[in-house]
Specification:
about 50 residues; mainly beta; Rubrerythrin, domain 2; four-stranded antiparallel beta sheet; 4 strands
Length: about 50
């Protein structure tokens, strides 16, 4: 079963992306480099609660 998660920018702390992940294959928190429209740059985004 896939669960919905929210990704937040580590620089400005804005929540930018909503996505899904499979908890069975990825039990820990996700980290991805994505574009932040507030910082206007590619930054590291981490999964929030």
């Amino acid at each position: 079963m896939r669960t919905r998660i929210t990704l937040a920018c580590t620089e400005c702390k804005q929540t930018n992306y909503n996505t899904t992940k499979d908890k069975k294959t990825h039990p820990d928190r996700m980290e991805t480099k994505k574009y932040c429209r507030f910082c206007k740059a590619h930054t590291l985004h981490k999964e929030t609660k």
